[in-house]
Amino acid sequence: MQTIPIKNVGAAQLVDSFQREYYYLRLSITDVCNFRCNYCLPDGYQPEPNKPSFLTLDEIRRLVSSFAVMGTEKVRITGGEPTLRKDFLPIVERIRGIDGIKQIALTTNGFRLLKDVAAWKQVGVTSINVSVDSLDARMFQRITGVDKFDDIMRGIDRAFECGYQKVKVNSVLMKDLNDKDFSGFLAWIKNKPIQMRFIELMQTGEMNSFFQKHHLSGQILEQKLLQDGWQLQIKNRSDGPAKVFRHPDYMGEIGLIMPYEKNFCASCNRLRVSAKGKLHLCLFGEEGIDLRDLLQSDEQQMLLQSRIFSALQGKREHHYLHVGDSGVRNHLASIGG
User: Which tens digits make up the pLDDT trace of 37-85?
Assistant: First the structure.
């Protein structure tokens, strides 16, 4: 890719050709996952032969430092399951020490939540998203392939004990599987400071038939919420894609992530980097732009920023999920969802 020489980047640098500003980096640190969720990795993690190693601590520091200079304020650490990396805590420490980074969020399947959440809090993880696809232990195991429901639920309680004021819980609601849990989730958050986030099932290359069978439109859920008095909230600039709703009778919140909604991409504010150092402009898009060759020394920072800026100018206005085009993405674990 052609490199554009620039003297000083700054916050205005992370603006695409449609004038969208980017303050939020989703950084995958591994594509390994120990769950077998039926909507993502139903056959479990399949290691690639001769695959490149994951980004090192120094490469992560250089990467996030460059994004921070360009205006990134929030980093979400994702996977696979990011806490499976033995150096997960040192990674958070490195990111925490970078000027300009105000939030370090973590998306986890909750496997280590009960045991390690206190250490995450201490080292600098500012917010946690945990996946809980059903409040019924048997359905949870059917969807995820693991018998960890009780541990994860206790882990969420432990997160509050450790000082987290709010926990975000992700659930992919699917027709004829866990869609009946909707009312149960609402009851669960009535007196708990949980943002319950319902993620619309998305079509990927390996899951076409599963999608056709189980897709549930998020707009159906939105209509139910509005009819029951839930009110849409205004987004902050570093918030993710969820439309957040609050109700005066509930301590918790509801978030809806609806990628098939019209104009979903108009408010895009996030970029993604894979665990092997590729920049992805869209969850559903191209093969990615390699950044790793410019992560080998601190002296390469300006070249790295220039490549990121140049790539950003090629970001599409929107994805094409609505016409059945999920790009080259076979499953979401490959770049952290």
Answer: 999 889 899 888 878 899 999 999 999 999 999 999 999 999 999 999 9
CB contact at 8 A, 206 and 331: yes
The answer to pTM > 0.85 is yes
The answer to whether 131 and 110 are in contact (CB under 8 A) is yes
Beta strands in 150-221 (DSSP E): 167-171, 194-199
Distances from the Cα of 10 to the Cα of 79, 122, 274, 313, angstroms: 28, 30, 23, 16
Tens digits of per-residue pLDDT, 290-299?
Answer: 999 999 999 9
Q: Give one word for 176, left, alpha or beta, with left for phi > 0 and alpha for psi -120 to 50.
A: left
Long-range contacts of 177-186 (CB under 8 A, 24+ apart): 177/38, 177/139, 177/142, 177/143, 177/214, 178/133, 178/134, 178/136, 178/139, 178/143, 179/216, 181/134, 181/135, 181/136, 181/139, 182/221, 182/224, 184/135, 185/135, 186/250, 186/254
Side-chain half-sphere exposure of 277, counting CA atoms within 13 A: 22
pLDDT at 318 over 80: no
Q: Which of 153, 149, 200, 139 is nearest to 172 (CA)?
A: 200
322/71 Cα distance (integer angstroms)? 31
- DSSP states along 55-102: PPHHHHHHHHHHHHHTT--EEEEESS-GGGSTTHHHHHHHHHTSTT--
